[in-house]
Amino acid sequence: MNMDINEITYIINGAVFEVNKELGHGFLERVYENALLIELRKRGLSAESQVPVKVLYKNEIVGEYVADILVEGKVIIELKTVENIEKIHEAQLMNYLKATGISVGLLVNFKHSKAEIRRIVFTLPEGHGVYRVSGRLPI
């Protein structure tokens, strides 16, 4: 599919709310991850789970992360089941975006009766290079 970021995130939002409606709150993150993968694929999006993200410094791996879900190679979804989304959760997703060069991520919290979605956008400062990643994520 060749959709822009806004179309993709709109479909993701609908999928999140469908999963929330069907499952409610109270499950572990992995349950929501599996259900969201099913829902995203039913809506025609390509989605991968537990995607490795490696941070490189001068071609040496200096850090490794695992992103919950990558959608269409353009949006990272980080799932939570926490009382409140904190700055540390936003920073975690921002690190994934920075390491991959992907500009948009969604932080989704399934803890309460209504799922909370926060959109995080990362842009490189003027004059900075592109971040590289190995694994299944695009450069």
Structure explained in plain terms:
This protein has helices at 5-23, 29-42, 87-100, and strands at residues 47-57, 60-71, 75-80, 104-109, 116-121. The chain is an alpha+beta fold and 139 residues long. The chain has a single domain (5-121), classed as Lambda Exonuclease, Chain A (Alpha-Beta Complex). It is globular and about 45 Å long.
Topology:
Elements: H1 5-23, H2 29-42, E1 47-57, E2 60-71, E3 75-80, H3 87-100, E4 104-109, E5 116-121
Parallel strand pairs: 3-4
Antiparallel strand pairs: 1-2, 2-3, 4-5
What features would you highlight for this structure?
alpha+beta, 5-stranded mixed β-sheet, 3 helices, 139 residues, Lambda Exonuclease, Chain A
CATH class: Alpha Beta
| Residues in helices, as a percent range | 25-40%
Largest sheet: 5 strands, mixed
Q: What strand line-up does the widest sheet have? A: 1-2-3-4-5
- The amount of beta strand, in percent, is 25-35%
Continuous helix count: 3
Overall number of strands: 5
Give the overall shape, derived from the CA principal axes. globular
**Structural class estimated from helices and strands:** alpha+beta
User: What is the total domain count?
Assistant: 1
Uncertain spans: 127-139
Q: How far from one another are the termini? A: 18 Å
